[in-house]
Amino acid sequence: MPPKVQFTREDGLYHSFCGLVSVGWLYQKIKDSFFLILGTHTCAHLLQNTLGVMIFARPRFAVSLLEEADLSSSQPQIADQIAEIRREHKPSVIFLLSSCTPEVMKVEFEGLAHSLSTPELPVLFVPASGLDYTFAQSEDSVLQALIPFCPVAPPEDKRVVFLGSVNDAIADDFALEAARLGIPVAGFLPANHFHELPPIGPGTIIAPLQPFLPRTATQLVNERECTILSSLFPFGPDGCRAFWEDLAAHFGLRIDLAEREAAAWERIREHTELLRGKKVFFATDILMELPLARFLRAAGAEVLECSTPYINRRFHARELAALEGVRLVEQANFERQLRSIAAEQPDLVISNIITANPLIGRGVVAKWGTEFIFSPIHGWAGVNPLVQLFTRALRRHTRLDPLGLDPIWTAGVMPSASGDVIPLAQQ
Amino acid sequence: MRLAYWMYEGTAHHGVGRVMNSMRGVHAVFHAPQGDDYVYTIFTMLERTPGFPAMTTSVVSGTDLARGTIRLPETLRQVEASRNPELIVVVASCSTTLLQENLEIAAQSAGVGCDVLVYDANPYRMQETVAAESLFTELVRRYAAPQPLTPHPSVNILGPSSLGFHARHDLIALRRMLAVLGVEVNVVAPWGASVDDLRRLPAAWLTIAPYRELGAAAADYLEAQFGTPALREAPIGVQPTLRWLHTLVDTLNELGAARQPATARAITLPPLTAFSLDGRSAPSNVPWFARTADMESFSGKRAFVFGDATHTVGVAKFLHDELGMPLAGAGTYLLKQAGWVREQLKGYIADDQFLATDTFQEVAARIAELRPELVCGTQMERHTARRYDLNVMVIAPPTHIENHLLAYRPFLGFDGADVIADEVYTTCTLGMEKHLIDMFGDAGLEEVPEHTRTVEREEQEPGEQRDEEPALSSAPQPRVTRSSPTEVQPIWTGEAEAMLKKVPFFVRGRVRGNVEKFAIERGIAEISAEVLLTAKEQLGA
């Protein structure tokens, strides 16, 4: 049994995004895909504001819009829209994402997706509704939907499949690093194209690159009898060393990466010196918090609190063990976190994009957590970008002159502000 | 059902949030799934709010629905404890509306001391604009109380709001002009107004309501209920601003003359230079600018204008009347305002040049068909303009963070005329430049393929070589490596070259340079995949 690491569960994670936002990176990762959300104006407005700020000539995602007249029909009619998507975008696969309203309407998604699927163009149901899923959790749903399309590997095929969407440069790093160590690679889930999915069978070792994919891992074990690597996630020198040593062990390779780890720490010493003794508070929602906090602690920082939307005792077992003694919170209540921040005076708050500016407005050094999702922080080559994400905010705020905290410089910016901003940080 | 790529208007709950985050001492509570909190980001990121916006999502989860839990009363108590507002407006979301819960009873059971208004904004029947306008009007009806008029001529300014298009700048422009005239501002709402300010609305002599989208209905109500006349035109452009000033002065003077006893001084329009920033220049440079030789080429450029009602009409007339540009077409996504927009643009465009639709694809198709030299639209039209390589400027919401700039950039008044004209001028391909391109082909603007640019590296500044920047930054990075001409350039193997191609394009040049430097320093003549990987690890990008 995984160790019983203590964490508390609160009730107030309300500053967060629903699962639909992961469309933002998944549609780019799976290059012949189309993401169709069955939803309302709200879903479309969400996409507009999270993705519409980037300028797209031809977005490969859209909303099948439920309007008032559609609320009474038992099963939405979207065959024409599937035809329009096929005509306009010629995808190899369409992911059909659920959202809150059709969930409340009890739309039977599995059946709907099945009825629209053809052998040439599968339509796959992806649960992503904000009633149940937060942020990157829907990547887990997308990968689950892809499992049936991974060829079945024979038992003697003993290779690794890396789990989680990473960009091509990172994927190359992992493939080459594995080759260096003598670890045979079967591929990546997801692959860049729908028809390039890796074979998975009883001999496969699944090596998770992202900490938010426990459901896919469980389903793979149940359906393909493969083995899930239980290690740290490959972030930071400590995470990379554990990840590769543990992965190699599955292939009967005994390797010692102590020197490699030490060299990596040495290369980022100017950053870890800055982080040493700094008090860091995680109040974000990206589902990467546990490994990030573990790395920061190893780098010498003091983690005051690490909150994350969901903790999975089995999938996160090694990270939880490494975080022994840190205050861990699931579903954190943000009002309580504000009080804790005021009381404990962290040097750095890893917040989400939603709350970053208001926190900075109260004199807190806040780093926008979403950037970790979009940065190449995996593996040995990711060590430097990873540590810099933490130190950049600290350095930048040190460089700025202190005038910024005088309310005069924010006067008139926010019409609802009362004018007397109560600082969370002591000035 | 229809396929929607992009939307023009936000949701009803976003409209409610905009009114609440405009006002002081009020708060919105969204009875909604966690994901509906995304609207919060629009305020904190686009408006860069230094405080927490006045809205809270009272989360409804799948588990809550299964168990029959309703967290609304607890949320209301938390909001009262932490924010102490005078008024909380509760609104359901698109999904929770379908649950048919009685939110009135749930809200009452919270036992909070402040006013609680459960606002019935059916998200399937109203969107952002109507929800905001209806809520604001409802609040004015609820709170505006009979008042004696102010002793001196005064106005209310209704309409500026949080996330309103250039609203803060417009408000400055209006205040500047009123200050020049010596007219007092009684209340601005919803921007910065408290519930108590709404009570004081009837003390003003006149309502200024320049936006069709917000404040116009409240102006109607104040006129009907309290007899406050309203100035409803939007002073967009020099001529409309002059007319607006004359109407304002005349109306206030008539009101002053009719008072018993008549108030002392009449307002006079000062010399127009008084409206300039230094008080001694032309209030706007547009009339002269439009006549300069430089602008002659603009008389052949056709513009397509699409947006909300106020800005579509204002900008279309401005382009036509004051810059002499022909209109290829115009339209609005605000279907309820379509009749008014069409009426306003009679004589400017033919009926078949008018477009009223909230479907992005239809607007895109119209633009593709017209291929105008200038598209004045929303953030959505930037997608279309990119697809067809057209010049585009944003004149109406929805906006991009790039539309939330720091400098004073109003659309209203004399100052606004200069801002719009500058935007048109810098957006369009200039006249002379276009002639040269037409005559000589490419004007040297064509992309040089990356492989042929090796020599350019010699010209980089030494100071540009910095590793402290993150590998992934939002701006394109220049190639930065310097190498001495005497050194032998390492050769890239096909495999390494292919790996490099996978590095995001905006840092690729820097990675290439760093890896080559790494190879040169170690006397490596051939950069293989292995060398690339080692270098990336050593250099940290």
Keywords:
heterodimer; A: 427 residues; alpha/beta; Rossmann fold; 3 domains; 6-stranded parallel sheet; 4-stranded parallel sheet; 17 helices; 14 strands; 38% helix; B: 541 residues; 4 domains; 20 helices; 16 strands; 12% strand; globular
Short characterization:
The complex is a heterodimer of chains A (about 425) and B (about 550). Chain A is built from 17 helices and 14 strands. By secondary structure, chain A is an alpha/beta fold.
Q: What's the helical proportion of residues of chain A?
A: 25-40%
CATH architecture grouping of the largest domain in chain A: 3-Layer(aba) Sandwich
SS content category of chain A: alpha/beta
- The averaged pLDDT of chain A comes out at 92
What oligomeric state do the depicted chains represent?
heterodimer
Rg over CA atoms of chain A? 23 Å
CATH homologous superfamily placement of the largest domain in chain A: Nitrogenase molybdenum iron protein domain
Helical amount among residues of chain B, as a percent range? 40-55%
CATH homologous group name of the largest domain in chain B: Nitrogenase molybdenum iron protein domain
Could you characterize what this model shows?
Chain A is α/β, with parallel strands linked by helices. Chain A has 17 helices and 14 strands. Chain A has a six-stranded parallel sheet, sandwiched between helices. A four-stranded parallel sheet of chain A has the order 3-2-4-5, with helices on both faces. In chain A, strand 6, helix 7 and strand 7 form a beta-alpha-beta unit. The two termini of chain B are 47 Å apart. Chain B is an alpha/beta fold. In chain B, helix 6 packs parallel to helix 9. Chain B is globular, with a radius of gyration of 28 Å. Chain B contains 20 helices and 16 strands. In chain B, strands 12-11-10-13-14 form a five-stranded parallel sheet, sandwiched between helices. Chains A and B meet through helix 2, strand 3, helix 3, helix 4 and helix 7 of A and strand 1, helix 1, helix 2, strand 3 and helix 15 of B. Strand 3 of chain A pairs antiparallel with strand 1 of chain B, so a sheet runs across the interface.
